[in-house]
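The authors assume throughout that readers already know how a fold can be written as discrete tokens. What matters is that the chain and its backbone geometry are given together, residue for residue. A single example would do more here than another paragraph of explanation. For illustration, here is how one protein appears when written out as sequence plus structure tokens.
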Amino acid sequence: MGNKISYLSSAFLYYAIVYPISLLPLRVIYIFTDFLCLILTRIAPYRKTLIKRNLFKSFPQASHDQRKKIKRAFYQHLCDVLAESIKNLSISERELKSRFKISNYSILDKLYAEGKDVFLVSGHYNNWEWMITAQNLLLRHQAAGIGMPLSNAFWNYKLNQRRGRFGMDILNANNVHDYLSSDHKKPIATLILSDQTPIDHLKSYWMHFLNQTTPVFFGCEQLAHQYDSAVVYFVINKRKRGYYKVDFQLICDNASEMCYGEITEKHTKALEKSIFKHPEYWLWSHNRWKRHAPENLDEIKVDQQLKFEKRFPNAKKKVNTNSKTETNSENPMLSRYAKF
């Protein structure tokens, strides 16, 4: 009974309030979210303690005022993304393509010409919702996206329906292998947002990210090796309010030429570099570091590598060294922080 009430109340909220708002011009929706931003910054800050803790640990060398500026800019951006996500429910193909563009097609076009499937990997940085919806409109590859199902049945169905209305195939853990191993008319580009918190630390890849020991989803790397796919990192850059441009960076065009952990290290460091450049565009309200590194982490890493190399014997062998963990050379005290 409770599930039915939840479903019906969510459906009423969507059809009576959310979807009608999405039909308004984006500049009008921004008025609502600007008011919300005022509340979040002055009256009832959303996840204030978590955001402050994440920023402090990620930028320990930054001053209090610099982190405060990042937090304030993040709240404004978060409200903009909320407005754009609402608009995403009804945005037309024409308007979406005018607001969301690709800057360098050559990498994906070359892989398409070679008949190569590709995993597009990034994080919750800038407007990922428009990337999901627009991908099949902008790229020659058949678009697919792997995501975690929402607990609310109505919103899970409705959001996936709207995300996929321009041709994106929505996947989850239950059907991803069946989909990737089936025949397709053209190569597939599968989108993965890899910066969520993994559930199982034994299946995570632990590395240094934003000055902290961090578990990272290892699924992208495993899938790339299993299906002999290319891996491309994408970053969404904000041109101005409500307008974005996507840049692609090739991680590898043949996963078997990469050793254990190399793909994950490269795309995660690429995301880190994007965050250092414009920290306000990342999702700081997410509890990214709620799982701490286990005491036997070194043993876990050795065991993971052995299992990986046994599963993928054709992968390039990793030469282990006793060197210290590499840290990002970017200086968190970027002058940009003082220019918000």
Q: What stands out?
A: Residues 2-317+328-339 form one domain. Confidence is low (pLDDT under 50) at residues 322-329. The chain has one domain: 2-317+328-339.
